[in-house]
Design a protein that fits this description.
Chain lengths: 244, 244
């Protein structure tokens, strides 16, 4: 790491998830890209220069721009503008009882990021569809902070169809959300190390519907997410950045 | 339209689909973005300044970068660099016997672009997931050129699951492919008029597997696509650009 502060880009989908983080770090809003709804917040956090890049609110639907396409575009624009040393996809996510997960668990990402909704049965394309984008080693960091480690799997839907379940079983993923693989794709293309921090709002294999769990637990998970993001930032060191 | 040539951006996913078009228009390869695998080709076509932006080959999987995320990133980078007056998503696609479609049909897009694999059952998010990104009016253009018009629906998979079928029935889409909604999302954010040109390689409701139909018919459909793209470019006029 050079004398200048290491730059960490944190990509987030929802304003409600980002607000406690930008508040805790006292980040100031800064200019984002003109042709995207993104909102960016920047400031110093301990030894780091941090940019929290939120996908922003869709102008036509007045909802947060969730999903892989807005996340990838936000990441791309932020990498161009900020030239980060590390990209973090942070947000809330689902997990499974079968893995022993509970609401409020915090996961750091495993060594790959996968998609479970890209089925392309043409020679060579199926593995491309899964993606398996590289993530940095997070085990030591997770152990120091008391977090879990699991493979994060991404789709553009909140639910889990039988087709999704088959793919998720194949990847062994423990965390299910809607942006990380899109972020990781861009980070891979740009050659920037990548990780994720995900706080669990819902259990996919619980009898309660996912949307209801999500709504009920979003506030608690968001607070835990903010604490986890701040804790990770304070723990980051050169070894973390380069442990691919 | 000003005295300077109108600029048309054509976003394509596969090199094999783009090659006959760049050859017919005698476009020269130009510099694309450094952090994406895109390959860009630019030149004059009649009264137009044309950029064909191909998503490019994935460095790790050695296959064309198909799907919404690479298409959206390519579109975003090309809009930044080229400032087009019109964006066209061009490529091969699937259609349905039930609509009277046959292999080799050429479709121009309808007035909206939808996703059929983004199911988000949270208040306000479901319609966001569908997208319904605006497309320009193409009926007159299609009538003049002998093409069909249909709503284009996008997912990141080659197949059609029961969940997909339900969404496709709801949207009334006649053309199914893997990029257009991602391209249209970016065009909408940037306020650039958008359309698609799609040549049919496979019938989704045919007994033959889609991958086999796609492989068997790709070459023929690609030639028809190239002829269609050139024909559309020659027909484009100011009325087309602004008929949203």
């Amino acid at each position: 790491m050079s004398d200048s502060a290491a730059r960490v880009l944190i990509v987030m989908a929802m304003e409600a998830e980002a607000e406690p983080i930008t508040a805790a770090l006292r980040l100031a809003e800064t200019t984002g890209p003109s042709d995207l709804p993104c909102r960016w917040y920047r400031g110093a956090a301990d030894h780091l220069d941090v940019l929290v890049a939120v996908n922003g609110v869709d102008a036509r639907f007045d909802v947060d721009s969730i999903g892989t396409v807005p996340a990838a575009l936000n990441t791309y624009a932020a990498i161009q503008a900020f030239n980060p040393d590390l990209v973090i996809s942070a947000g809330t996510a689902g997990a499974w009882h079968r893995d022993g997960s509970v609401v409020g668990d915090v996961f750091l990402s495993g060594v790959s990021f996968v998609n479970h909704d890209r089925r392309i049965e043409l020679r060579g394309f199926d593995a491309y569809g899964v993606g398996s984008h590289p993530g940095i080693q997070t085990r030591d960091l997770a152990d120091r902070l008391g977090f879990k480690v699991g493979i994060v799997t991404t789709s553009n839907s909140l639910d889990e169809t039988p087709h999704d379940a088959e793919r998720i079983e194949a990847s062994g993923a423990a965390v299910k959300e809607m942006e990380a693989a899109g972020v990781a794709y861009v980070a891979e293309q740009a050659g920037v190390p990548m990780m994720a921090i995900k706080a669990i709002t819902d259990l996919v294999d619980d009898p309660a519907p996912t949307p209801q769990q999500f709504i009920d637990n979003l506030s608690v998970a968001t607070e835990l997410l903010a604490e986890a993001v701040v804790a990770v930032l304070l723990e980051l060191d050169e070894e973390t950045f380069t442990s691919t």
